[in-house]
Amino acid sequence: MIKYAKIGLILTWMLGGCSGELGFELVDGGIGGTGMTSIGEITGFGSVYVNGVRYNTDTSDVFINDERTGVDQLALGMVVKIEGEVDNNQGVAKRITYDDHIRGPLSDLQLEQGRLTVLNQTVWRNDLTVLAGFNGLSQLRLGDGLAISGFAMVDGSLQASRISLVNDDAPLLRGVLHDYNPHNHTAFIGKQQVDLSHSALINAPLADGETVVLRGRLHGQHLQVDSVQTNPWQLPVGQAVNIKGLVSAVSFNQFVLNGVSVQQQRATGYGLGTANEVQQGVLLSVQGQMGHDNILYAEEIRFDRGHDAHRLSALHLQTRLTHLPQGQHIELLGQNFKVDFNTLFQDNAQQQRDFNLSQLAVNDTLLLQAFFEQNQWHVTRLQRLPTDSLFYLLAPVTQTDGTRQRLHLASIAVETDAQTLYFISNLPPNLGGWMQQNEKKPIENKILSADVFFAQIQVATPVLLIAPTGQQPPILAQQLILLEHPAHGL
Predict the structure, then answer these.
(1) Which of 118, 298, 444, 476 has the maximum number of C-beta atoms within 10 A of its C-beta?
(2) Does residue 236 form part of some domain?
(3) Do the beta carbons of residue 292 and residue 331 sit within 8 Å?
């Protein structure tokens, strides 16, 4: 039978949060020597990394939920607004602003889908969501206070970049007003009805489609609002901006990102994608100039491929480091992995907040998530773990030989012997769904013969390999688990 304890150990490390400093030279590019306003998630520390820019924070004014605080209160995964100066991806942050997207008690939890409900807002967790104060969704209980940051989706739900367990769940909700009634001062944000009649700003001009931050208290099913902040992250006209979000609407060569109309131009550059791939629901960042017509004229668009949970090119690997990093690159199992400013870092071994590549040592145990694009493995998440004897690889099949019972996972050679165990599991090919199901109940597996296993796999089939650590290709498999596709996904 499969060793459930080992699978559980894998999940324990996968579910942790992240922090760290990047520790490499950023590539040249970007708008040089100018004021810039950026909106995006924090991906690294030492300085603060947002949307591919390393911001010096020595003299930064920091505001979290409308209160002045210190840089040390910022955390990985927070979606922040940074106002500062930028020159070739090196910047100085004058002001950093963060507001929770949602703060309140947990009212519903669907582990299988990675779905939460807070203040009647649907929140989705994926593999790159940073968790703080808990290690997995199964540890949460209804009524727990949560503070959530993330990106609004097309249907009004939220893709969480960070979920924190908090003691203070005083309701806070950021979103777009709809069904506003100026007579009784009620409205909705998503499915949450809000009562604005007690707010000091009830005489302010509010209207459907306006983005607001509401603070107040729950009164039955209603959010009784005490304060209203309008246009919380308004972008400066005539200035360079760099914003990240999910595309909510597309029309010819224009699209909407975070409520901002973006104009694609003939000279617009594209990273990790093409103009035709700008579609609803795609996560990307846009750098350009904010025009006086309140349209963002895009100079550079970069696709965030790491958040696509359904990519068949996704890879998850836990192994020991055999070669020190060279620049932005790590070599593992004969494959070259590139780390960039979008990589999330975590040091579970020594708990260093400003963990970076230069601190890695040979024989460190690493947990790495990556995707393959443009002939290169791009690392989306890198964690250093306490020393462990377990090796595993979750990746698509790239080559198979049923006659000799060999295969390649993400071009890494795998061999079998008479001791190899084969299973089929009812888990989805994306790790997010896999983790969520395993938190709820033990993995349900069916033992297969080698012949049946190899008859069922083909190129692009996701397979989980478990083996003793310390191996180099070809890897001798201890267990091979074929992942089935369930009816649902994330």
Answers:
(1) 118
(2) no
(3) no
Q: What angle do CA 128, 281, 375 make, to 5 degrees?
A: 60
Say which CATH number the domain at 194 has: 2.40.50
Bond preceding residue 442 cis, omega within 30 of 0 = no
DSSP SS3 for 35: strand
Same-domain status, 202 and 224: yes
Domain count, the chain: 3
Q: Which range of residues forms the domain containing residue 347?
A: 1-18+305-490
Quick: pLDDT tens for 236-295.
Answer: 898 899 999 999 889 889 999 988 899 999 999 998 888 999 999 899 999 999 999 989
Same domain, 197 and 133: no
Chosen domain end from 184, 202, 230: 230
The span from the CA of 165 to the CA of 282, in Å, is 28
User: CA–CA distance from 409 to each of 128, 178, 280, 307, 314 (Å)?
Assistant: 22, 48, 31, 21, 11
365 neighbors 357 (Cβ within 8 angstroms):
no
Run of H or E residues at 453: helix 450-456
360 and 450, same domain (yes or no): yes
pLDDT digits (tens, 9 = 90+) for 284-302: 999 999 999 989 999 999 9
CA 216 to chain centroid: 29
Give the phi and the psi of residue 145 in degrees, each rounded to 5.
-80, 130
Q: What is the pTM of this model?
A: 0.81
Domain containing 146 — which CATH number? Answer: 2.40.50.320
